[in-house]
Amino acid sequence: MPFEHFLIPFSGGPAQEELNRFLGTHRILQIDRRQVENGWAYCLEYGESKIPQEKPPFRKNDKKPDDGYEERLGPDGFRLYLKLKDWRKDRGERDKVPRLFKIFSNAQLADIAEQRCRTMEELQAIEGVGEGRCKDYGEEVLKVIAEHEAGD
Predict the structure, then answer these.
(1) How many CB atoms are located within 10 Å of the residue 18 CB?
(2) What does the alpha-carbon distance between residue 138 and residue 149 come to, in Å, rounded to a whole number?
(3) CA gap 90, 61 in Å, rounded
(4) Global pTM value
(5) How confident is the model at residue 124, as a pLDDT?
(6) For the chain, which domains are there?
């Protein structure tokens, strides 16, 4: 594994900013920190960069994450599925949930859109949707479905 060394004076300054930049862009495996005469010495063992590589351009034959749901759900069901995804994104941002599948997975949202759940019991019958998710998100999900059914 590669190593990087930093000497940070007690006063901080540009060397500290450089260390912070490095920490923010690399996966750190191990840090050895020692106090030296004028500050702190850091030896960092690191892995690959955290900065995502540029995605290759989308090709016509590539599958999108929602492939198959549009055909399975039909046009109206797919519109509901997309509304549920928008709700999940908003709720995730509001609650600062880093992984949206922790609210509901795409497959669960597709099942919810397909079943057109109208009650908590129907929602809880979806695989992986338990009492906790119903308690946390159920009312909002049912509202999205009801608004969709009403034509909003």
Answers:
(1) 13
(2) 16
(3) 30
(4) 0.57
(5) 92
(6) 3-49 (no CATH), 69-149 (1.10.150.80)
